[in-house]
Design a protein that fits this description.
Elements lengths: L2 H14 L20 E4 L2 E4 L17 E5 L4 E4 L5 H14 L4 E5 L5 H4 L11 E5 L2 H15 L17 E3 L2 E5 L4 E6 L9 E5 L4 E9 L10 H11 L6 E6 L11 H19 L4 H7 L2 H4 L8 H12 L3
Parallel strand pairs: 4-5, 5-6, 6-7, 11-12
Antiparallel strand pairs: 1-2, 2-3, 3-4, 8-9, 9-10, 10-11
């Protein structure tokens, strides 16, 4: 959609009372569609790059995508920049004529939520974990300062928070297709949400599953391992991980992550029991387990998170 057509549409909607006066949207220039892969019938995934936090390509560093129903589309994460969100929106327009009715964020991290503003003109429900809105509001100024380039110059109002939240489970009807949203206790983060598509037996895990690049603990090590143990007993035809390939077999997809987190658990408990100081543990603990991962410079941070959690056992 051209900028002129977007502005005209906004003006018409304002006159009609469909959106409140004063609502601020990200401008909608014409952008190339992101490449997406159909991993199952009606399920399309864009492969995020293995880009770290200081990489200029960080705005496109997570797997994101959409699910098409007969009535409407559900977006699953929007990327780490408004530009990435616009590219995803263009990919949807190139794939289907049905409207976007839901934008679902799997957790609070920038690479999954900063593209939300690209979808405000669609007037969808923005949905996330019960803890997500508070977490995004708390991080709004941080996002604006640290990700100014990704937010059209650092406009804090372009950090779009959920308009609906999930405390436990919720069903969404896309028309001939039902999605099951499930909110989880603290694991990778404090606001992890999974999306299960009944029609294709596909689970979108968000960052509860990392493949190839190192998992990052921002919630609870023990909570994350508990989720893996419970989820591994379920049967899925495929999962869409937050990072790594666009789709993978289950439960094989989580095996390497489970081994790494288990190493942190075992080695962390041993370090605490033998009186190893945190600073020393960060330098030495679970180094072999960390060496297998891409972008593993954050391993000491994971050791610190694990140690601080386990020392209270």
């Amino acid at each position: 959609m051209s900028d002129y057509r977007f502005r005209l549409l906004t003006f018409v909607l304002l006159l009609a009372g469909a959106i409140p006066a004063g609502t601020t949207f990200a401008s909608q220039p014409d952008v190339p569609a992101l490449p997406v892969t159909a991993v199952a019938d009606g399920i399309f995934v864009h492969h995020g790059l293995h880009a770290d936090i200081d990489d200029p390509a960080r705005g496109d560093s997570a797997n994101i995508g959409f699910i098409v129903g007969e009535k409407c589309v559900a977006v699953i994460d929007t990327g780490g920049s408004i530009a990435t969100g616009r590219g995803l929106r263009a990919a949807i327009a190139a794939t289907t004529a049905v409207p976007v009715c839901y934008v679902i964020n799997t957790h609070v991290h920038f690479d999954h939520v900063l593209g939300n503003a690209a979808f405000t003109a669609d007037d969808p429900q923005f949905i996330g974990h019960d803890n997500l809105a508070q977490a995004m509001v708390a991080n709004r100024e941080f996002f604006a300062e640290q990700f100014a380039a990704e937010l059209d110059g650092g406009r804090a109002e372009l950090v779009i928070v959920p308009t609906a939240t999930v405390a436990a489970e919720q069903l969404l009807d896309l028309g001939g297709r039902t999605l099951e949203l499930e909110a989880h206790p603290s694991a990778h983060s404090s606001a992890d949400l999974t999306v299960f598509d009944r029609a294709t037996n596909t689970l979108w895990t968000g960052d509860l599953v990392f493949m190839e690049r190192m998992p990052i603990i921002d919630g609870s090590l023990k909570g994350w391992l508990a989720w893996i143990k419970e989820a591994a007993d379920r049967s899925y035809d495929r999962i869409v991980p937050g990072h790594g390939p666009v789709a993978a077999a289950w439960p094989d997809a989580v095996a390497a992550e489970n081994d790494y987190l288990q190493a942190l658990l075992t080695d962390g408990r041993a370090a605490i029991a033998t009186g190893v100081f945190l600073e020393d543990a960060m330098d030495t603990m679970s180094r072999d387990a960390a060496a297998k991962w891409l972008l593993n410079a954050r391993h000491p941070r994971n050791v610190s998170r694990a140690y601080r959690e386990l020392e209270w056992e």
